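TOPIC: backbone geometry
CONTENTS: sequence, structure tokens:
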Amino acid sequence: MSERVAVIGAGISGLYCSYLLEKKGYEVDLFEKSSKVGGRMATIEKSGFILDHGFHVLQTGYPLASSVFDYQAMNCQSFQPGALVIESRPKKSKIWCFADPFRRPLRGIKGAISFFTSPFNLLRVGLLRWHIMRTKDEDIFSQNGQSTQDFLVSRGFSQSFIDRFFLPLFGGIFLESNLRTDARMFKFVFKNMSRGDMVLPKQGISAVPNYLFNKLEHTKLTLSADVKIINDREITIGGKVQKYSRVIKAFEESAGKITRSVWTVHFSAPKSPVKGKYIMLNSNVKTQNKLISHLAVPSDIQPSYAPVDKSLITVTIVGEHAQEKGINSKEQIASSVVKELTEWFGGEVESWDILDIQHIAAALPELSASDFAKIDLNNQNLECGDHTYHGSVEGALQSAVKLVKNL
């Protein structure tokens, strides 16, 4: 008779852990406290729009994720490599296209001579990419720790370029306002952005956990489950004790944990304000103490995200940045965001309607330098999730691999 294992939590790591356990011959009971699988990778439909819970993309450069997911089967479409950078000005905002010079050489050269920054900063980006692309992922995490801010300064980047480019991009990715995230995580993400694309599934980001769930063959799923872990072999559900050969915790306890938050505002608009399939970075987020980190138009990438005659615009605001400005309600977020967008795009913003304002209090784990120093160790605990490895889809998957490998 096969051993039976309980997995508590049906997010990305719990789903993939269940799949790996199946492959090793275990019988799996998967429990999820909410009414659907996926955890933070959730999607709703509203007024004909597909709204992800927060701004999510998949990175095709992640090696394990690319072996797990079939991007073609999920009908993924990609952003253009690079970014638009916007600067609010009294008369008319200025927009630069900062294309990836390695994959879009003509646009990259054009961006290099547009005076967004000095040619030396652009050269340093190329040298940074060349260096990191030649470093193995595992070697990145074995390096000494320092903040992303300090690392970028050590590479010779000007503070102005850091504030206007790296901060709105990676501050929006890491959900923090001063680039304190460990540089090992920055290097890992930068490398994978360089070797792959940012893509969106046709049916929204919930297609990712749904894809994993559909790979399960024998796992028994229980939704809306009131489960309490007694020890590594026992749980209670519905007040009754159930025993297993192993009990795996695939979630992070919220009590006492420091997490990073994010606000996401989704708009319906008559047309896209962006030219090209790029994410748009706010170069003023630090220099002028603005609120928005970046803006994207998912329907430009995946038309399924919006009705035929509409565009979906998604704005990201780092939670701690909003707190620093004393903004802590949906009403304040809405008015501040509309004000900034009007500075960017003028009167056309009046025709935009707010579809949803989301506040995700625990969007990413707050990991210290000591956490990153330990991630190359084998997972000896019966716990998986991005909080045990690093905050990404790749980290969530890798954490499951390390756990199951050591069972």
Q: What stands out?
A: The longest strand covers residues 353-365. The chain has two domains: 4-40+206-251+369-405, 58-118+192-200+258-365. The mean pLDDT is 88. DSSP finds 15 helices and 19 strands in the chain.
